[in-house]
Structures are given as C-alpha cells and as structure tokens.
Amino acid sequence: MKDLQHSKERINQSVNFTGFKFGKVYPSDIDAVIEIDNEFLFLFEVKTGDIQPSAGQKYMLENIYKNWIEKGKIAYLIYCSHNTKPNEEIFLKDCIVKDVLPKEEDYLEMDVLSFFKMIANKHKINKIIESKEFKGIDNNDCDKQAFINNLIDV
Which long-range contacts (CB under 8 A, 24 or more apart) does 7-13 make? Predict the structure, then answer.
C-alpha cells in the first residue's frame, strides 16, 4: 500500500508552539482532516489509550464541528485511540473510535476504517464508495487487470 504522507523524512519533526502564546490563546493541532466537496467534514483526534484531549483542544474541535453543522453541512468529530509503542507508526485506519459527534448512533469501539466506510455508505459519498480502495481493490490488482485487458484487446 502506498504511503500517503508526503514528507516522510520529516514525520518525526514536531511543530514547537513555544513563543506563540497570547494569554490563553495558543495553537493546537488536529491529527487528521478529510473534507469532501465542501459538503462533508471529518475531524479525527487520535490519543494513546484512554488519554483525553485537553479542554482547549476539545473546545476548538467542537467549535469547528458546530460551525460546519450550522451551515447545513455534514460533519463528524471522531475521537479515537491506539495502543502502539512510541517507536511504532500509528495507522489511522486501525485506531478505535472512542467518541463521535454526532452522538445519534453508536459507533464506539469500531475501527476507524470500518466507521468511515459505514458513514460513506450512509451518506452516499460517491468519491469514497466508488473508489478502488473502498471496493477492496488495491492499485497493484488494478494494474494487473489493465495489463490483462490490454493483452485481450491486442
């Protein structure tokens, strides 16, 4: 599977917020964001084990979520966890959903990939459900099939 992170050699570099605090106002980060066609928004916050986001981070994430919803768009705020060791990569797809907004349905303890696929189906997000990855076809299989199709056409 192709790695989707662009500056892999810099992945362990953190952005240091020191010197960028103004009273109670200072930066935070969001672990992952998916925005689709200015209609769907998914915010992912990933923590180790049972660690909770800080009050300020939670407030920020929930405000982004609420602003999106108030505009009549579809948004999900997903808090998820992992139990990987500090020297191991964290794969978002394998993280476990611990809390989610909206709270209308029970998605808890589901892996993030299953959750995302379920939501894509629920809202008929065509960019997701029509993708090769969603259908379980990896790019290598597609390349092999294209090669076979080209041979047949010859």
Answer: none
